[in-house]
Amino acid sequence: MNIMKKISILAATFSLTALTGCSDFLEQELKSDIPGSNYYTSASGYESLSNATYSTLRTIYGGDPWLFEGGTDLFATGRTAVNVCNLYSQAYTSANDAVETFYREHYKAIALTNEVIYWGNGDASRASRVAEARGLRAIYYLNLVQQFGGIPLITNRTIGVMEKAERATTEATYQFIIDELTHLSTSSDLAESATDGRFNRKAAYHYLAKAYLSRGYITQAKSDFEAAITAAKNAGAGKTLNTPFNVLFSNA
């Protein structure tokens, strides 16, 4: 009996020693969970965040963005049926996969641009990236307002879960987009033009023209169409077609 008791005590002591000795080994360290305050304050971390805002363009435009053409005269049903043939009828609801994906991916992209703006505000060395993010955000909102009318305008960094978002009017949404692009079209923080795909002043003029033209079809205001013409001319100023239309479409 004494022997068994001694064995039990030794076993318990050994187990306690083993557990104590392994305590450091068992402690978890989640190295992939790097706080934004640590990563985005570094130059490389902030640059990767800025690049991420451009990668969302591939998500939105690179797949099958049916909402850009489904239900219009640009779209025709082929041999394979798709769920967008009647996109602008009773199927045009959040229950439609194309609609839900389009809406969700745009707001994910907007959230990234807001992060770039938040972590870059007040830092002169990051002013160009902040301006680029504002330009991309304006594009995303332009896509959304053209499809859904008034939408939630989220212009600040989002922390945690948003349980409620107020829907802005169509007029307020267009005005926000136009104000942003008007500012960016003359901003010294952006290059006049670029060949690396980054948002620039020419791009700002281009989308400003599109925003005025799109709003003009709603307001039927002559001033919107005139502003669209002016912005479009500024976007194309100093540029010529590689092949003039009269040559490209000539029968000769």
UniProtKB/TrEMBL annotation:
Organism classification: unclassified sequences, metagenomes, organismal metagenomes
The SusD-like N-terminal domain, residue ranges: 80-213
Pfam families: SusD-like_3
Organism: gut metagenome
Protein name: RagB/SusD domain-containing protein
SUPFAM superfamilies linked to this entry: TPR-like
